[in-house]
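User: Can you model how phosphoenolpyruvate sits in this protein?
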Amino acid sequence: MSAPRRPVLAGNWKMNHGPSETVRFFADFLAMHEPADDRTVVFFPPAISFAAAKEATQGRPDVRLGVQNVYWEASGAFTGELSVGMARDAGAELVLIGHSERRHVFGETSAETAKKVRAVLAGGLTPVLCVGETLDERQADRAEAVVAEQLEPVLAILSADEVAELVVAYEPVWAIGTGVTATPQDAAAMHAAVRARLAQAFGQEAADAVPVLYGGSVKPDNAAELMSQPGVDGVLVGGASLDAQGFAGICRAAG
Ligand code: PEP
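Assistant: Here's the modeled complex, given as structure tokens:
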């Protein structure tokens, strides 16, 4: 039997909290959040605030940092982009890939997410691959098919060993930043579908090693119920991760 997956509590700050707010946030959050080695707590600050976050979390190895996006090339004339090597050098351990806003605001394709996942793994960081359907797709009963389509190009480039390095975040687009959350039952069903697709590609043992997080309007008062669902291994939190007290509450909700 595979080892139990550790809960992952991840905060995606999007384009919020500049360097000064980052320092203030961590002064508050670290005073409230007891170090715990039975869960993974990770923040994705904006790139411009990464150094401030790194400095503010020195001496707290229980708090990890990641970046919100990377480009797949190592360096060069790619204005505005970050490479995996740069992210690693700055102290990032994880990288969000294919967040709904990257896909729907910036037009990132699933083929591009696969190139990014390949670059992140080659650079020794952990990709957090975000997938999820729009409301129209859900209403057309295509939620599982859409998520499978988004996973496909990534699964096609991974080996069974590499898939163990992956984290998947199921984030229905209609639940992100809307205050509407998937029901715990719908979240559990989608997580089961994601894991079934991983198992089909790499076998059950490999699939069982992959943390699958839920994201979409997670708040301190719904986090515990969502995380108590089978196959929901943690949460990726946007808006509610900007508030130190709220996010500390979500971290406690992991049990
Ligand atoms: C997100 O940004 O990944 C997210 C889930 O946002 P929110 O929690 O605000 O819905």
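A couple of observations from the model: The longest strand covers residues 126-131. The CA atoms of residues 41 and 255 lie 13 Å apart.
User: Helpful, thanks.
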